[in-house]
């Protein structure tokens, strides 16, 4: 990786020696990186990081991270490899690299970077409202609908809005073959230099807010699990009112494999739903359930053949959405009483604090590093 970084930095340097990117070009490129539709991959992200640091701070001037701080060590190595490359050259190389990542059709229509942010940002989470139903769709099919940090925040916002809109219920589903592969593991690799503890704290705050919004959601909340579900996309199901699943869906919570621990109140809801014996096998040993098994354990309301899922489920939901909305909300609040919600908030807080510490553990960093280097898959 270091050789690639050095080679590319030198190549871009030689090729563009006569050009000079202005500070404004650089600032725009920094904004454009955040708007990229396609994930450029870890190698490019590391290069961008190194060039950004060189352009803004000059030669690497911070101590080498510890041996177990894998991610920061890769980043440090890449920055350090740029040696004494002048700041202006690093700035130009950064701008060139970013423009090479933007398809020409997009570059011409993009205009001022700030103006399209919202539009592009909302592509990964699509929210629509029709027939009394607000639909929230995980829409990153090429990444198996893995949930980025930004998506957590968008979903939190979408739920807060849906709780006040005039729809009768809210339905989650996924686009493509997966419902969702859970937390996007690259969320862990975008650590701003240095303060990994602060980063983990911010992650825990985002997660806590996200789960709190599910706990407090006042209207019927339905999941249409169109395919395999992993991690947090499974655990949140314990906070839904109804879960319909395709017979192709699977339910997998590989927390121990990832050096992590349960979230979304599943350490409380799963034993309550399926009994401790079955919940332990899922949450501690990461046993993957088929749709039929998840139905038998009470996590899923009903399983449909994949070929008829969409037709049957949406027809049923449209009919349900015509029921008197206040009656449905009041029934929900009786079932999920205020004391139960209080308990769920306390569980959520504890799970988030536990995860915050886990994310800094050698076990977790090692598992994420393995996934990133493609040695390990579930
Ligand atoms: C400090 C952190 C701040 C974070 C902010 C808040 C964090 C809250 C965190 C809450 C805790 C959540 C826990 C979980 O959800 S644990 C579960 C995590 N998920 C996984 O471990 C799944 C990993 N993915 C896989 O094992 C396989 O991809 C999978 C079995 C799902 C599919 O395998 P398949 O062979 O069919 O497909 P590919 O692997 O080729 O996948 C296609 C592309 O999609 C990318 N992908 C898939 N899943 C993820 C993922 N979870 N994260 C990132 N990327 C993912 C995969 O890399 C492929 O991409 P490329 O085509 O670019 O290679």
TrEMBL record:
GO terms for cellular component: mitochondrion; peroxisomal matrix. Residues 22-107 form the ACB domain. PROSITE patterns: ACB_1 (PS00880), ACB_2 (PS51228). InterPro entries: Acyl-CoA-binding_prot_CS, Acyl-CoA-binding_protein, Acyl-CoA-binding_sf, ClpP/crotonase-like_dom_sf, ECH/Chromodomain_protein, Enoyl-CoA_hydra/iso, Enoyl-CoA_hydra_C, FERM/acyl-CoA-bd_prot_sf. GO terms for molecular function: delta(3)-delta(2)-enoyl-CoA isomerase activity; fatty-acyl-CoA binding. Pathway: Lipid metabolism; fatty acid beta-oxidation. Keywords: Acetylation, Isomerase, Mitochondrion, Peroxisome, Phosphoprotein, Transit peptide. It catalyses: (2E)-tetradecenoyl-CoA = (3Z)-tetradecenoyl-CoA; a (3Z)-enoyl-CoA = a 4-saturated (2E)-enoyl-CoA; (3E)-nonenoyl-CoA = (2E)-nonenoyl-CoA; a (3E)-enoyl-CoA = a 4-saturated (2E)-enoyl-CoA. Its main location: mitochondrion. It is an enzyme of class 5 (isomerase). Able to isomerize both 3-cis and 3-trans double bonds into the 2-trans form in a range of enoyl-CoA species. Has a preference for 3-trans substrates. In the C-terminal section; belongs to the enoyl-CoA hydratase/isomerase family. This is Enoyl-CoA delta isomerase 2. It comes from Jaculus jaculus (Lesser Egyptian jerboa). The gene is Eci2.
């Amino acid at each position: 990786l270091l050789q690639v970084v050095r080679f590319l930095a030198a190549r871009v340097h030689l090729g563009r020696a006569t050009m000079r990117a202005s500070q404004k070009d650089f600032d725009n490129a920094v904004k454009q990186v955040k708007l990229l539709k396609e994930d450029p991959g870890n190698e490019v992200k590391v290069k961008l990081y190194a060039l950004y640091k060189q352009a803004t701070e000059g030669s690497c001037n911070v101590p080498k991270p510890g041996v177990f701080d894998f991610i920061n060590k890769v980043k440090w190595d890449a920055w350090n490899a740029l040696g004494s490359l002048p700041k202006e050259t690093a700035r130009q190389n950064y701008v060139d690299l970013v423009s090479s990542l933007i398809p020409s059709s997009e570059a011409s229509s993009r205009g001022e970077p700030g103006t399209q942010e919202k539009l592009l940002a909302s592509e990964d989470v699509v929210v629509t409202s029709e027939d009394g139903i607000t639909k929230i769709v995980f829409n990153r099919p090429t990444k198996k609908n893995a949930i980025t940090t930004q998506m957590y925040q968008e979903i939190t916002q979408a739920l807060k809005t849906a709780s006040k809109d005039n729809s009768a219920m809210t339905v989650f589903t996924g686009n493509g073959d997966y419902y969702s592969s859970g937390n996007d593991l690259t969320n862990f690799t975008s650590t701003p230099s240095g303060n990994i503890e602060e980063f983990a704290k911010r992650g825990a705050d985002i997660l806590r807010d996200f789960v709190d919004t599910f706990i407090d959601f006042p209207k019927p909340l339905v999941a249409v699990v169109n395919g395999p579900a992993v991690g947090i996309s499974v655990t949140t199901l314990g906070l839904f009112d109804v879960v319909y699943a395709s017979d192709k869906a699977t339910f997998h919570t590989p927390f121990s494999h990832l050096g992590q621990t349960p979230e979304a109140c599943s350490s409380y809801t799963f034993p309550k739903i399926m009994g401790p014996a079955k919940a332990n096998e899922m949450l501690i040993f990461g046993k993957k359930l088929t749709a039929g098994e998840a139905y038998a354990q009470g996590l899923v309301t009903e399983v449909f053949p994949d070929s008829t899922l969409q037709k049957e489920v949406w027809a049923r939901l449209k009919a349900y959405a015509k029921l008197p909305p206040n009656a449905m909300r009041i029934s929900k609040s009786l079932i999920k009483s205020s004391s139960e919600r209080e308990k769920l908030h306390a569980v959520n807080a504890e799970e988030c604090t536990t995860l915050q510490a886990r994310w800094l553990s050698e076990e977790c960093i090692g598992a994420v590093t393995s996934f990133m280097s493609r040695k390990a898959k579930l």
